[in-house]
Amino acid sequence: MKAVVYHAVGDIRLEDVPEPRIQAPTDAIVRITASAICGTDLHFVRGTVSGMQPGTILGHEGVGIVEELGEDVRNLQIGDRVVIPSTIACGNCAYCRAGYFAQCDVANPNGKEAGTAFYGGPAATGAFHGLQAEKARIPFANIGLVKLPSEISDDQAILLSDIFPTGYFGAEMAEIGTGDTVAVYGCGPVGQFAIASARLLGAGRVFAIDQYPDRLRAAQRQGAEIIDFTREEPVETLKRLTGGIGVDRVIDAVGVDAEHSCCNGADAAPASDSQWQPGNAPAQALEWAVQSLAKAGTLSIIGVYPAEAMRFPIGMAMNKNITINMGNCHHRKYIPRLIEMIQARRIDPAKILTQVKPMADAIAAFEAFDRRDNGWIKVQLQPQASTSAASGGSRQGEEKLDEAIAETFPASDPTAPQNPR
What we know:
The chain has 421 residues and is an alpha/beta fold.
């Protein structure tokens, strides 16, 4: 079968790999009908998150059809159409039973202290093969697969695998209540869903901070008040627009790449430099986040940071009585709730999709997404044509770019793209 395989930093390839097999009674084999490229995948390709093992299949977002089941998977049938939560959990340990699926004690083979296990990640996450492939092995399938209603398309379902739950998780951790003023740093796909989720939770105002025009337009179409940090100092602007108070809640949907060069390639100013100049902004979203929060506000961090990241403005946060919540999303906890929201037509997540590409174009799609080509906000990969009548029949051709840019959502995505090759 074909799959996108990691070989080294800057070196990924579409190649033939062996088909997966059942290895445990709780496994399933799923034929993938839709996968996607995530900003987290770019962390691995760029090397900003280390520890990737050569030969690992990339990708942690997937929708598909159950083809094989282990004998202990008793809530599914062969032929069921399912979405795959991107984090892996056993469903039995104390953490899973409490809803902390991302902190499962069992799924990660590196031990209880190893942390989140997910598909297509580095050795520390368990080195599970990913979902940018024609088929995938799903461990703990009774928990790791969620059956999809027939009315939900693949285009909608692929966003349920990771980025919609992550955005909602970020908004929930921000403790957003009715009428709150919220700032979202980073308007990649996860940031866009954080904006949408903030509104679902009753936010009165939402500010969106980024530098890419297409992403800012997408946020604006959702009703967010946009700030381009290459044109104005974001903290000063937020303070001015909130009467000098700041915002009640902040969601960091940027992550580690905020520390890299930004703004037309200029090196970022030191985090301690309070002088902002267009084209030389401090690329440190966490510092901006703390500065822009009102006293007793809440900071929610869903952007991806490596374990060795050490910088944080702790003194400023402490002196403002800021509450900080952070972590990896417990996807399995949120997916059923979000399915109900889609069925109730409170939101259509498919509006985020700007490109749908066949697996044969995966490497070129990675390159375009990494360059931040205009309009490349969220990319779906199709390993094969879906056999489901509900799997995207509303989409004609491989793109609905102009329409999607008008209403999209963006990820804990980097602000400083580099070509992965």
